[in-house]
Amino acid sequence: MKPRILCLDIEGGHGGSSRSLFQALQHIDRRKVSLEVWHRIPGEIERSYADIGIPTVLAKDMPRLTALEKESRNALNVAMFFLHVWPRSAPFRTKLLEALDRSDLVHLNHISLFWLGRWIKRLRPSLPIVMHIRTCPYPTSVGFWQQRTAARFCDGMVYITENEKKFFENAAGTEPPNVVLYNPVVVRDRVETKPAFRFPAERLVATVLSNYSFNRGIDRLIEVAKRLDSLGDTSVLFAIAGDMRVTGAPEGKLAAVARQNGTLKDYARDEGVAHRFKFFGHISNPEDLLSKSHALLKPTRENNPWGRDILEALAHSVPVASVGIYDRFVETGETGLLQKTFDPDELALWLMHLSTDPAEGNRLGENARTRIQRLCDPTAQAAALSDYWCRLIHSKT
Questions:
Q1: Contact at 8 Å (CB) between 315 and 378?
Q2: Confidence of residue 83 (pLDDT cuts 50, 70, 90)
Q3: Most C-beta atoms within 10 A of its C-beta, which of 32, 249, 295, 296?
């Protein structure tokens, strides 16, 4: 009988971890394993799984606990989890136990499921559990608690890059058997886009595909826009897709916008650069926007230039500018611009250079596409994941 894999997904709507899981499962050879996915949020992903014959269960009360940046907020978050979220999940957990009895391995798609994983291991100690480490949690008490707890109950870890692996090893002190598997990315040809994403031919479209958070640094584009204005540029246009409600700003004008429940659009208007931006809110098909983009920007304050938005852009032959030192994906002069520290002047000049030298943008884009094909091939990554599952199952028998 084929090994039966139960995947638990904290998202399921349009989140990056759900998208990555789907693209892996989509390419797994199901002659080798049987798959089932439980997800917390309804969305198009249900139909996508149905189209490829993978059964799903919507589990809105799947309990998750996320590590936050501030200890005070963590304390409140943990209290709410144990007083409300965990007790409310009792019917879900009862139903889950039945599914565990017909499963040979559980794959937890995010570290915020760590407490659920601990509960599973205590009740089903012989059932292998794999956790997919997709983030580096904040270095707080809850973040360390998550990682050390996961290291005790998990039978295996899957990391999306070497960075998460190193971070986890340092935080947990030890770890179960592990593998680094870059997120699978389907490389497609550019597609014809919806009218909403048509731009004037003379504009260079620099895109953001991410909800706002202070650590993602999207507000830094206001400074870049000011530099472009001062340099006399009339070409660069920022296309922003995602929820842009401003939160978490520590001080200054941006904090004032946050206190008024404002958005990045309000901030751009207040700073006199609204003409540089188009805000689209959440979009269900980022490929449509990427097909009309000349660059993707991720001016992160967390120095993590390897997220799902970056990989998708590179796969669509779109050069990327980001911040950090890890150049496996974004590499200056090869696939985009990687700044060790954020420099709005350098980024503005780079965008202006792309606008006046389309051949350079095409070269970077082709390099980007080739790199993603080599590092993130879905068939190869899916095979490695299923092989890893099977090895863990066999090691327990």
A1: no
A2: very high
A3: 296
Residue numbers of the domain that contains 90: 4-184+377-395
pLDDT for residue 206 is more than 70: yes
pTM over 0.85: yes
Torsions phi, psi for 297 (to 5 deg): -115, 135
The CATH number covering residue 156 comes to 3.40.50.2000
Q: Is there a single domain that holds both residue 205 and residue 151?
A: no
Pair 280, 293 in one domain: yes
Alpha-carbon span 20 to 39, nearest angstrom: 13
From residue 63, give the alpha-carbon distance in Å to each of 84, 88, 96, 115, 116.
10, 8, 12, 8, 7
Over pLDDT 70: what percentage of the chain? 97
Say if residue 15 is in the same domain as residue 69.
yes
**What distance in Å separates the CA atoms of residue 224 and residue 346, rounded to the nearest whole number?**
9
Helix, strand or coil, per DSSP, at residue 5: strand
Q: Where are the alpha helices (DSSP H) in the chain?
A: 16-26, 44-51, 71-80, 86-88, 90-100, 114-123, 141-153, 162-172, 221-230, 252-259, 264-270, 286-290, 308-315, 344-356, 358-375, 378-395
How far apart CA 379 and CA 186 sit, in angstroms, is 9
What amino acid is encoded at 305 in this protein? P
What number of CA atoms fall less than 13 Å from residue 277's CA on the CB side? 28
